[in-house]
Amino acid sequence: MFPQRLDSPLAYDIAKAMRDGFDRHYRLFRAESARAKHRFETADWHGQQRAQRERIEFYDLRVGEAVARLEKEFKAGEQPMEVWHQVKLHFIGLLVDHHQPELAETFFNSVTTKILHRAYFQNDFIFVRPAISTEYIEQQGAPTYRAYYPTPETLPGVIQSLLLDYRLQGRGYANLERDAGRVATAILSRFHQVKLRANFQLQVLSGLFYRNKGAYVVGKIINGFTELPLALPILHDADNRFYIDAVLFGEEDLQMLFSFARAYFMVEMEVPSAYVQFLRSLMPRKPRAEIYNALGLAKQGKTLFYRDFLAHLNYSSDKFRSAPGIKGMVMLVFDLPSFPYVFKLIRDYYPPQKDTTREQIKSKYMLVKQHDRVGRMADTLEYSNVGFPLDRFEPELIEEIKRFAPSQLEIGDRDGNGEMEVVLKHCYIERRMIPLNIYLQEAFDLLDQPEHAHRASKQLEHAVVEYGNAIKDMVAANIFPGDMLWKNFGVTRGGKVVFYDYDEIEYLTDCNFRKVPAPRTEEEEMSGEVWYAVGPKDVFPETFGPFLLGNAAVREAFMAHHADLLDAAFWQSHKERIQAGQMLDVFPYDEAQRFKHVGHEPYF
């Protein structure tokens, strides 16, 4: 039972110390995000990527600091339940006028669960659902978004003003009038033969969204009852002057920009919930959890994901099962058919060809988390000691976990409420995709049916082209996928091919790409065994073919578009480019959407 009155000064002091710990975290997080503007202005691309990587660690560092302070100053772990009841109530009171209450509640949960015994993890002690509303929080100073009211005639000038309002310093725009004219023409063409209503306006978020070598204006066009999402990528030209590279329109383009397979944005926000609310109006199908993730607030994303997951369990009745497809040698994968995610457990035992350890596998997943995923590597949510209702598991899946990952499984009535739980010690959760090998097999099955042959042929070619493009995008970002089999890639709802098996991933620059040496004798030429020396990081691209191109139609499509992936020189040249400090652009939109600029060249 909650106390009838707040009479513990110690409880207030603990609550205030926790809020101070969160405020320090968000102040540092926000300052690092704000510095992205200067790094963009000065074309400090390696600094930008380094900051994106390091910012991911901020949260756990601040939680650790808060835990250490509470134990040192208040012996927090020794305090009775009556005090902790009051701590939560005081904390709620301290958030009434706060600008990031939802993030502070999650921080409270993180600190509290590191201090208290597992039996305390109930509604009384942590925020199972939010206590403070995030509606109508007003940002101090600059508003969350700005509104502009052009006419067709004034639209180019209004767009110039809109861009200048971001106050980018540096060498300025190469040709602002040209860019504004292009954007205006693109907007008006979308409203061709449509009457512009009295409320015709542009609304854009006040902060630019920085990632890698780009900055993005994000907003929407409103006309009557129509709202059209909009984004403007700002890049640097060869003289380090700014230019608008494209106009992105509609929910699909914005979904690609904010994809779960891309690195997190840096954007300076006082009221993150207001940004999320605005972005949801642009992408209503995108879960709030994924939007918080895209903004770099991954812990809040995890909190919201788990709440959504629990709500889904309440309103569904299907059971967890072993995921369809070829079984992995390192990961045990299962899913809930009605839920669009998969759950991955690291197995306890691996076959001899997988020379790895649990810690090495976890380090590979952390590498991907901190790296630029260039739209081709799925983000993962990592959970420890996560509980599931036992009666929602197929018995065969429980037996499979007991057999292959027994160290990760605990079954019991953890909360003492009479309901048996499956507790997984450590798991990863990813967006569900169609495994590429299954996607290809569906095309193979239709090729022999005349009425479906054309569509199947297009599906097959699209899959193969996208597969090669995925590998080349990863190469551009200094990633060698390691295991390039079709089963390790998936097809997203938007038709993109994304990599999701990271246990053999390596930096491209750590690999040694070689041609297979010419045989010296007839015996070597006829040998079915590898007769030449192979180092631990040696890669022979010409040997990929037999594993990937057994199907004639696949081989034809692959050789037409991506034969260079079988050539060691291709890989070695990109390794040397990266070692020389070059960073290639990997755009979150199609080449065809870009405005034509002098000197533009495709990166492959």
TrEMBL record:
Domain Isocitrate dehydrogenase kinase/phosphatase (AceK) regulatory residue range list: 15-316
Gene Ontology molecular function, alphabetical: [isocitrate dehydrogenase (NADP+)] kinase activity; hydrolase activity
EC number, UniProt record: 2.7.11.5, 3.1.3.-
Ligand binding (ATP): 323-329, 344
Cellular location(s): Cytoplasm
Catalytic residues as annotated in Swiss-Prot or TrEMBL: 379
Keyword annotations of the record: ATP-binding, Cytoplasm, Glyoxylate bypass, Hydrolase, Kinase, Nucleotide-binding, Protein phosphatase, Serine/threonine-protein kinase, Transferase, Tricarboxylic acid cycle
Limits of the Isocitrate dehydrogenase kinase/phosphatase (AceK) kinase domain: 318-590
Record keyword Cell cycle present: no
Catalytic activity reported: L-seryl-[isocitrate dehydrogenase] + ATP = O-phospho-L-seryl-[isocitrate dehydrogenase] + ADP + H(+)
Main location as per UniProt: cytoplasm
InterPro entries, sorted: AceK_kinase, AceK_regulatory, Isocitrate_DH_AceK
Family, similarity comment: Belongs to the AceK family.
Function: Bifunctional enzyme which can phosphorylate or dephosphorylate isocitrate dehydrogenase (IDH) on a specific serine residue. This is a regulatory mechanism which enables bacteria to bypass the Krebs cycle via the glyoxylate shunt in response to the source of carbon. When bacteria are grown on glucose, IDH is fully active and unphosphorylated, but when grown on acetate or ethanol, the activity of IDH declines drastically concomitant with its phosphorylation.
Protein name according to UniProt: Isocitrate dehydrogenase kinase/phosphatase
Species per Swiss-Prot/TrEMBL record: Variovorax ureilyticus
Gene (UniProt): aceK
